[in-house]
Design a protein that fits this description.
This protein has 255 residues and is of the alpha/beta class. It is 35% helix and 15% strand. It contains seven helices and seven strands; from the N terminus they run βαβαβαβαβαβαβα.
């Protein structure tokens, strides 16, 4: 039986890229959703030209995590089997969407795959870019910490190119609205006992000076924010495990 697949793009002020990226995505995805997270730059007007694309609009900017959560909700309400998430800044290659779907559907594994996560550091590709040093350093630190504290073996904590088994999404009840949402997602995925695999994707950086917004453009501030969300997520899941089923989590709090 063929899976019903939804490909979702969270966007905020992506007028420069959205039409071109959507044209490419639609070559490899039949059902496409754009979550417009309160764009103010003309993105909404550009989306009006794509009548064959589902659009969910946030009246004001809520954050990357909130946009992903809207995609999760849409996929569940729509009865889809697989949800693929891909960024709209041109740094992910839409032609790899079928590969993510196939990995999520792989019947040869001992059990179903719940999350297929792209990794820019699992394998080298010809033409790979060079990541900004600060962003690479923060990714390395958080990836190492996630692996140590959750017993995972990830190589890229923050890649937004993913595929999810939609039936597993109710177990990922994330609360974080911002860029640190993937950290909470890993915590909840491990607590729920979900099966996770990584597949390699090319390392592409088109906007090295891309803003995270306000104070988060400072690397140390961003790192402190990530640690705070990770620690809060671990504490939250630990509290839940005292009152209901949850897998044990590992490691000491980071300072």
């Amino acid at each position: 039986m063929t899976s019903r697949v939804l490909t979702a793009l969270p966007v905020f002020n992506e007028q420069q890229h959205v039409e071109q990226v959507l044209d490419s995505v639609k070559q490899y995805a039949q059902n496409v959703l754009v979550v417009d997270d309160g764009s103010t730059d003309g993105t909404a007007e550009s989306l009006q030209k794509s009548s064959d694309v589902h659009v969910v609009t946030h009246s004001m900017n809520q954050g990357y995590g909130a946009a992903l959560r809207s995609a999760f909700d849409f996929a569940q309400r729509g009865g889809y089997d697989v949800l693929v998430t891909i960024d709209c800044d041109g740094q992910h290659e839409p032609q790899r969407i079928p590969e993510f779907v196939s990995a999520c559907e792989d019947a040869s594994t001992a059990r179903s795959i719940d999350i297929v996560s792209g990794s820019r550091y699992l394998k080298s590709f010809s033409g790979d870019g060079v990541p900004p040093e600060e962003r690479r350093s923060i990714n390395l630190q958080l990836t190492s910490e996630i692996n140590r504290r959750l017993g995972l073996d990830l190589t890229d904590t923050f890649c937004g190119f993913k595929a999810y088994r939609v039936s597993s999404l109710p177990l990922l009840k994330t609360l974080e609205n911002g860029y640190a949402m993937p950290l909470e997602l890993w915590v909840r995925a491990v607590a729920a006992g979900l099966k996770i695999v990584e597949i390699p994707v090319p390392l592409v950086y088109l906007a090295e000076k891309r803003s995270f917004g306000g104070s988060l453009d400072d690397g140390q501030t961003r790192l402190e924010y990530y640690h705070r969300v990770l620690n809060d997520s671990l504490r939250g899941v630990s509290c839940q495990s005292e009152n209901g089923p949850a897998a044990p989590l590992y490691g000491e709090p980071a300072e």
